[in-house]
Amino acid sequence: MVIANAEGVRTTLCSGSQQNRRALGGRVSTPSVGAQSAQYLANIKRFIGRRYDELTDESKRVPYTVRRDPEGNVRIVCPQLSREFAPEEVAAMILRKLAEEASRYLGEPVTGAVITVPAYFNDSQRQATRDAGRIAGLEVKRILNEPTAASLAWARSPR
Q1: Percentage of the chain surpassing pLDDT 90?
Q2: DSSP character for 108?
Q3: Is 130 within 8 Å of 114 (Cβ atoms)?
Q4: S-S: 132 plus which of 11, 28, 88, 115, CB 3.0-4.6 Å?
């Protein structure tokens, strides 16, 4: 089951807020995406668990700045917060928001999660996803390929 967030939608975005100097998740972070697209950190999973030198020119075509840090890691520039984030930190913000929404829906705290990833993710991308879950304060029970998760959901659905 896909749980709608507090804004009633089934997707959650993440952006920075200059007013309160923190990252926001959800529809509250999206007043007008067209004019301010550089503040929305979309497609983060293309960077998670990868070194800057592994990125293609196409993967760097996002409306925000992606740079290389001195150790060769990917950094995401968030001018609204005047700071940079590792992709794992941004993913953790999104996971934290999703856990909060699930807790609200279920009426009890969510402390663990099974996180799905694309089947093409390599070991470092899977580990970085696991790290993002831990940063979000979750016990990561398992990392599951998205096609496997879809098959399991289909098998459990009433037909």
Answers
A1: 49
A2: S
A3: no
A4: 88
